[in-house]
Amino acid sequence: MKEEERRHKLFEQVQKLKGNIRVMCRIKPPADKSSDALIKFNPRVSELDEDKIDGLTIPTEREDFRMPGKMIAGEPKDFNFERVFDDNCTNKDVFDEISQLVQSVMDGKKVCIFCYGQTGSGKTYTMSRKEDGIIPRTQDMIFSEVDRLKVLGWEYTVEGSYLEVYQDKLYDLLASRSAKPEPLTVDPISEELNIKGHSFTLLKEERDLDEMVRTADNNRHTAATAMNDRSSRSHSILVLKIRGVKKNEDGEIIRTRKGTLNLIDLAGSESPDKARGEQIYREGVEINSSLSYLRTVLSRLGQGKTEGVDFRSYTLTQLLRPSLGKGCRTLMFVMVSPLKENENETIRSLEFAKDAQKVKMGGNGGAAKSKK
Ligand code: ADP
Ligand code: MG
Predict the structure, then answer these.
(1) 335 C-alpha vs ligand 2 centroid, how far in Å?
(2) How confident is the model over 343-370, as pLDDT tens digits?
(3) More confident residue, 1 or 259
């Protein structure tokens, strides 16, 4: 009976999540676990799987209005996510949880995976090639799927681009950094992502993709050093277009699948800080407005509304337009710092994620209808 009950709850959860933006949280491990300068997350074990956490309750304090200056317990902040990864979790645990979603790209699904959070919270660690994050694990999976499906008569082609949005302008992370890079423009009409004067790279084997990611990492790193860590103030997007065709004995195509995977390492979401200088402050303001516009777009699409949604307002949403909307699958990782000194930013990030989670995707909104 217990098993039956568990199955029922699982089914309900799947129904609830279907069509929603899925949100998972990852807490960065503190350098010093015994420190008392850590946020109290009070994790909640999942009812569905006692090895997993899916909720957090953070105590808050407020000033006692009868005794100014005296702090008393306030309303605790409560968060429920699909999954919470605490400091015991590894990049492998993260990928195990999302591997089915990545695999669904082979079936022709459009998938966006975002990492959101303040600078230093672990976005790049979770995505990166160096740390055996989502990107290298995705590489492995896709090319082993290509081989597996070949046996079943499918021929796949994989094409990729690695892009960067900095100050609302789009750049190719694969372009040589010796010349001053020219910003690119996205075709605002096309059903698929097309970028003027830019072609996707054909990736014949895993090595080609690995090479591409390595080049982009180097370029991103160079730009970061040259410009006071530009990478934390830009969004980076790895786009993979994956096409499968199945032919009959006469060589005629009988089935096709077109999937897209976007792996997005967003710019740091921290509040703009004047103390860090005028330029960084202005960049921060710009980042925050592009992130909140992303949320607006997602929530409009979720309500099945496209009026008032102009994907062209920001480069990030322009770029993602063909992958957002009906039938697409969106997963957001919210990364948080465990340090007390970051508590305000941590709560701010968790609130953003809580809001994003309410968004239902796949109404009548979406890419096709947004054409003007
Ligand atoms: P972000 O990209 O959000 O600015 P990073 O991923 O660069 O943050 O992480 C900041 C630092 O913390 C890096 O030195 C990184 O190696 C370390 N770090 C982040 N997440 C983890 C983790 N889960 N386990 C161990 N170290 C981590
Ligand atoms: Mg980073």
Answers:
(1) 11
(2) 999 999 999 999 888 777 654 333 333 3
(3) 259
Q: Does domain 2-359 have CATH number 3.40.850.10?
A: yes
Q: Is 88 exposed, middle or buried (0-12, 13-18, 19+ CB in 10 A)?
A: exposed
Q: Is the CB of 119 inside a 6 Å radius of any atom of ligand 1?
A: yes
* Domain spans, the chain: 2-359
Closest CA to 113 of 7, 235, 22: 22
Place of tokens 């009868």: 66
Q: State both tokens at 171.
A: 């750049």
Three-class DSSP category at 327: coil
pLDDT tens for 260-291 read: 999 999 999 999 888 878 888 888 898 999 99
Ligand 1: atom nearest CA of 87 is 23
Most informative mutation of 27, 28, 94, 233 for ligand 1 (most atoms within 8 A of CB): 28
